[in-house]
Amino acid sequence: MSTDAPFPIRTGGCLCGAVRYEVRGRLRHVINCHCGQCRRTHGAFGPYSNVAKSHLALVEEKGLAWYRSSPRAKRGFCNTCGSSLFWSAGDTDTISISAGTLDQPTGLRTIGNIFVDDKGDFYNLHDDLPGFPAGSKGALDGDTS
After folding, report:
1. HSE-up (13 A, CA, CB side) for residue 54
2. pLDDT tens by residue, 10-46
């Protein structure tokens, strides 16, 4: 018999509703990514959680489009309203979810900042969270970059 408690079903989606999803598994707490791609995608930094790909179910996907942003990664967005929803590295079994697209309450908290050497020059970090010049290489739970 498993002693693991079931995870609550969490829902989310884009601004217009053309993409809706359910998460049926453990969501990682949020890591703020300040890399150049996240800055351009979100306008500042990308606040991402992640989950096993097998635990993400698309409920409505008529607006979902994917953009190959690098040889390693692709980004999912709504082609109707432009909301940035996901990013995924093809060689992993997880998918990152833009935390702002989750319906509240999320039950999540922010645990760190990565790629702080690439952050925009128009803002400062004023938090006490761990920060890493590039990826945390596993120092932050669930971050393998």
Report:
1. 2
2. 999 999 999 999 999 999 999 999 999 999 999 999 9
Residue 7 β-bridge partners: none
In-domain check, residue 1: no
**Is 77 within a domain?**
yes
Q: Is residue 20 part of a domain?
A: yes
Total domain count, the chain: 1
Look at residue 35 in the predicted model and tell me its pLDDT.
95
We report the CATH number of the domain holding residue 114 as 2.170.150.70
Residue 11 vs residues 45, 55, 65, 86: alpha-carbon distances, Å: 22, 12, 19, 14
Residues present in the chain in total: 145
Nearest Cα to 33, choosing from 108, 122, 111, 107? 111
Nearest of 35, 98, 42, 43 to residue 72 by alpha carbon: 35
C-alpha 90/C-alpha 108 separation (Å) is 25
- CA dihedral (79, 84, 89, 95) positive or negative: negative
Give the residue numbers spanning the domain of 91. Answer: 10-118
Q: Does 102 map to a domain?
A: yes
Nearest CA-CA partner of 24 in 47, 2, 53, 48? 53
